[in-house]
C-alpha cells in the first residue's frame, strides 16, 4: 500500500518538479497539495502555472489546493515534502512537525540546526537517526529532515569519495543554472550574454553544509568535518545543471587516477531514486557539460571529469541537475530513506 504524501508549496518550481517525480512513484500517493492563501480553494490546474517538461498529471490537476496550515492537511497523510520559501518554512514547518507530520524538506531554513539531519543518503544516511535527538529535544511527534543546497549536493558526493585520502582543504567555484533562482529569479535582460559573480548566501551554504554532511554522528550529537572549504558562486545562462570547478588538497598522496577510481567505486544505495552509478567519471577533458550530462541517472547522478594535477593535489569538474538531484529528487530520496528506516 502506497504512503499518502503531501506537497507544501506545490505551485512553485520545486513543488512542480516534486509532483512530476511523485506522481508515478510506486511507494508514494499524492494526497494533499498546499500553497499560498491566494491559491487555496482552486484546483491545482487553476493555481499552478505549469512549467515542467512533461504534462501535468490529470489526477493531480483536478485536486483542490489547500492553505499551508496543519489544520488543512488530512490526518492520514504520512509524509510531507516541503518546497516552501525559507521565510515561510521557518514559520510553518515546525508547526507541522508539532502536529505529528514527518517532513522531508528542501527549504533552506534550519539546515544547520544541531538537531536537524542534513542528508544526502548515499553520503550520510546514518545521520537520519539524529531525528531521535530532535524528537526528544523538541517534543515532536513528527520529524523533519533536510536536503542540502543544490550546489552543495553537486560536489559533496565527490568529496565523500575522496575522504579516504584525508581531506584538508577544498576550493569550489560554481557555475549555476538560472533555474536555481526560480522562474522569476533572474530576468532575461540580466543574464543573457552575461554571468553574475555573486549569488546571495550561496557561498556560506556550500562552506558550512559540506562540513556538516561529512561530519560524524555518535548517536547523541553531530560533529562537523574539519575540512576547510572556500566557495565562489556564479550564475550563468544555462537553464538546468550546476557545473562546479573543484580544487582539493589531501593529507595523503592523491593522483588523478586514484581519484577517478575512488569516485567510480563510490557506492550507491538500494533506494528507488538512487542511481545505479552515483558518480560518472569522464575521461574527456571537456566533460561534464550541463546540456549533455545533467540527465545522467534520470537526473539523480553526479558527473565528474577533467581530473588533473594542479597547484593543489587535485583539480576536477563536477555537475548535477539542480532541480532534480539538487532539489526535488533529493527530497524524494530522503523520503525513501525515512520509509526504509522506519520513520514512516
From TrEMBL:
<dbReference type="InterPro" id="IPR036291">
    <property type="entry name" value="NAD(P)-bd_dom_sf"/>
</dbReference>
<dbReference type="Pfam" id="PF01118">
    <property type="entry name" value="Semialdhyde_dh"/>
</dbReference>
<protein>
    <submittedName>
        <fullName>Aspartate-semialdehyde dehydrogenase</fullName>
        <ecNumber>1.2.1.11</ecNumber>
    </submittedName>
</protein>
<dbReference type="GO" id="GO:0046983">
    <property type="term" value="F:protein dimerization activity"/>
</dbReference>
<keyword id="KW-0521">NADP</keyword>
<dbReference type="InterPro" id="IPR000534">
    <property type="entry name" value="Semialdehyde_DH_NAD-bd"/>
</dbReference>
<keyword id="KW-0560">Oxidoreductase</keyword>
<dbReference type="GO" id="GO:0051287">
    <property type="term" value="F:NAD binding"/>
</dbReference>
<dbReference type="InterPro" id="IPR051823">
    <property type="entry name" value="ASADH-related"/>
</dbReference>
<dbReference type="GO" id="GO:0009086">
    <property type="term" value="P:methionine biosynthetic process"/>
</dbReference>
<dbReference type="GO" id="GO:0050661">
    <property type="term" value="F:NADP binding"/>
</dbReference>
<dbReference type="GO" id="GO:0004073">
    <property type="term" value="F:aspartate-semialdehyde dehydrogenase activity"/>
</dbReference>
<dbReference type="GO" id="GO:0009088">
    <property type="term" value="P:threonine biosynthetic process"/>
</dbReference>
<feature type="active site" description="Proton acceptor">
    <location>
        <position position="242"/>
    </location>
</feature>
<dbReference type="InterPro" id="IPR005676">
    <property type="entry name" value="Asp_semi-ald_DH_pep-lack"/>
</dbReference>
<dbReference type="Pfam" id="PF02774">
    <property type="entry name" value="Semialdhyde_dhC"/>
</dbReference>
<dbReference type="InterPro" id="IPR012280">
    <property type="entry name" value="Semialdhyde_DH_dimer_dom"/>
</dbReference>
<feature type="active site" description="Acyl-thioester intermediate">
    <location>
        <position position="150"/>
    </location>
</feature>
<comment type="similarity">
    <text>Belongs to the aspartate-semialdehyde dehydrogenase family.</text>
</comment>
<feature type="domain" description="Semialdehyde dehydrogenase NAD-binding">
    <location>
        <begin position="4"/>
        <end position="131"/>
    </location>
</feature>
Amino acid at each position: 500500500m502506497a504512503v499518502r504524501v503531501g506537497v507544501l508549496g506545490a505551485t512553485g518550481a520545486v513543488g512542480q518538479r516534486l509532483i512530476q517525480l511523485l506522481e508515478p512513484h510506486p511507494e508514494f500517493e499524492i494526497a494533499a497539495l498546499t500553497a499560498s492563501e491566494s491559491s487555496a480553494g482552486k484546483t491545482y490546474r487553476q493555481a499552478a502555472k505549469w512549467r515542467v517538461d512533461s504534462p501535468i498529471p490529470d489526477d493531480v490537476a483536478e485536486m483542490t489546493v489547500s492553505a499551508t496550515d496543519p489544520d488543512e492537511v488530512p490526518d492520514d497523510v504520512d509524509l510531507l515534502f516541503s518546497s516552501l520559501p525559507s521565510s515561510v518554512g521557518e514559520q510553518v514547518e515546525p508547526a507541522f512537525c508539532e502536529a505529528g507530520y514527518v517532513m522531508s524538506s528542501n527549504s533552506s531554513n534550519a539546515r544547520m540546526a544541531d538537531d536537524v539531519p542534513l542528508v544526502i543518503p548515499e553520503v550520510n544516511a546514518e545521520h537520519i537517526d539524529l531525528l531521535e535527538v530532535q524528537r526528544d529535544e523538541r517534543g515532536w511527534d513528527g520529524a523533519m529532515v533536510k536536503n542540502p543546497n543544490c550546489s552543495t549536493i553537486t560536489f559533496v558526493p565527490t568529496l565523500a569519495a575522496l575522504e579516504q585520502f584525508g581531506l584538508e582543504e577544498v576550493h569550489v567555484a560554481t557555475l549555476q543554472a538560472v533555474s536555481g533562482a526560480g522562474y522569476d529569479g533572474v530576468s532575461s535582460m540580466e543574464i543573457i550574454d552575461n554571468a553574475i559573480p555573486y549569488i546571495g548566501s550561496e557561498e556560506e551554504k556550500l562552506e558550512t553544509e559540506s562540513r556538516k554532511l561529512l561530519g560524524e554522528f555518535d548517536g547523541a550529537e553531530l560533529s562537523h568535518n574539519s575540512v576547510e572549504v572556500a566557495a565562489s558562486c556564479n550564475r550563468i545562462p544555462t537553464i538546468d545543471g550546476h557545473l562546479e570547478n573543484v580544487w582539493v588538497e589531501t593529507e595523503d598522496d592523491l593522483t588523478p587516477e586514484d581519484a577517478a577510481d575512488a569516485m567510480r567505486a563510490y557506492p550507491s544505495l538500494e533506494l528507488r531514486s538512487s542511481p545505479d552509478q552515483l558518480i560518472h567519471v569522464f575521461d574527456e577533458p571537456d566533460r561534464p557539460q550541463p546540456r549533455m550530462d545533467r540527465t545522467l541517472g534520470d537526473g539523480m547522478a553526479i558527473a565528474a571529469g577533467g581530473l588533473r594535477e594542479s597547484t593543489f593535489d587535485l583539480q576536477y569538474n563536477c555537475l548535477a541537475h539542480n532541480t532534480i538531484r539538487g532539489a526535488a529528487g533529493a527530497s524524494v530520496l530522503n523520503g525513501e530513506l525515512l520509509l526504509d528506516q522506519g520513520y514512516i
